[in-house]
Amino acid sequence: MSYRNYSAVLTAVMISFLTIACTPQVQMQAPDKPIVINLSVKVEHGVRVKVEKDIDQALSNNPGLF
């Protein structure tokens, strides 16, 4: 085997090793602990309706206020 053939074979082997080493891998794994979603929602709708009703009553009782 000549030096030129040996160099070509060695280059081909190195390229194949580098190609195999750079192959991306994707792994999917379930989490150990369950997923927790915190749904702490602040509801202010009822408070706003009460305030609006109080303002309507105050304006109807005092028409000259504004």
Q: What's the number of extended β-strand segments?
A: 0
Query: β content, as a range?
Result: under 5%
Shape: rod-shaped
The separation of the N and C termini measures: 105 Å
Percentage of residues in helical conformation: 40-55%
> What is the ordering of alpha helices and beta strands?
HH
Keywords:
mainly alpha; 2 helices; 66 residues
Q: What's the short story on this structure?
A:
The protein has 66 residues and is mainly α.
Give a structural overview:
- The structure is a single chain.
- The model has no long low-confidence stretch (mean pLDDT 76).
- 55% of the residues lie in helices and 0% in strands.
- It has helices at 3-21, 45-61.
- It is rod-shaped, with a radius of gyration of 38 Å.
- It has one domain (3-25, 35-61).
- The protein has 66 residues and is an all-alpha fold.
Give the secondary structure arrangement, pairings included.
Blueprint: H1 3-21, H2 45-61
